[in-house]
Description:
Layout lengths: L1 H17 L4 E6 L2 E6 L2 H16 L11 E4 L4 H7 L8 E3 L2 E7 L5 E7 L1 H17 L5 H19 L5 H22 L7 H11 L10 H8 L12 E5 L4
Antiparallel strand pairs: 1-2, 2-7, 3-7, 4-5, 5-6
Helix pairs in contact: 1-2, 4-6, 5-6, 5-7, 6-7
Amino acid sequence: IYLHYLFDLWAARWRRHHARGIVILVRHADDIVAGFEHQADAERFQAELRDRLAQFALTLHSDKTRLIQFGRRAATEREQAGLGKPETFDLLGFTHICGRSRRGRFLLFRRTRRDRKRAKVREVKEELRRRMHDPIPSQGQWLRQVVTGFFAYHAVPTNVDALTAFRYHIMVLWMRTLTRRSQKDRTGWDRINRLADQWLPKPRILHPWPNQRFAVKHPRWEPDAGMPHVRFCAGGAQ
C-alpha cells in the first residue's frame, strides 16, 4: 500500500500530465523498470522521482539505478554513434537483452541471471552431499522436483539454453555424488544419461511470449503501436 501511494499513483499521474511520448511502467515490490519513448522524458522522470522519494526520506539505490538506451531502435542508433551494443538490465531473475530474430527483427531476449543460476547449482551441490547415501530413486525424485521447479519459473521463450545448462550441471553433480559413494562405483555418462532420462525433465518452453499473454488480456492492443527505446532501471529505494 505504501509503495502504491508513493510510486504507482504518482507515476501514473506523471505519465498522464507530463510525458511527451509512450511510457511503460513495471514494478515488482521495490524493483522498478520504466520505459520511455523519448530520452528527455526519462531524464525528467528520474529527477522528479528522486524528489518524490526525498519527500519520504528515501533515495534511489545508486548502484542499481541506471538510464540506458534499450529497445527496437537502440542497436541501430548506438551503432551509428559508435557506442557499441545496447546495455542489458536485470529484473525478476532474468537478464534482458536487445537482440534480433532469425528474420532480422527486434527481439527481446530473456536469460536466467548467471549469478542466480550459479547460486542454485551451489545449493543443489550442498544438498546432494547430505543425500549422498540415499537410494538413487530418492535422489532422482528430489532432483526431479528441483529441475521442475527451476523450469516452472525460467522456461520462457529465448531462455532454453539456460534450461539446458542447468539440467547439465545437475547431471554432473549427480554423477560426482554417485562416484563418491563408493570407491568401486564407476558411474559414467552412459549411466547418468539413463538416470537423467528417467528422472529429470527435459528443457522445453512453458510460458508464452509476452505479447501473446498481453493480447489475451488486452485483445484490442496493437503490438506495433510503439516500443519505447529508453529504459530507466531503478533497483529499489533505500
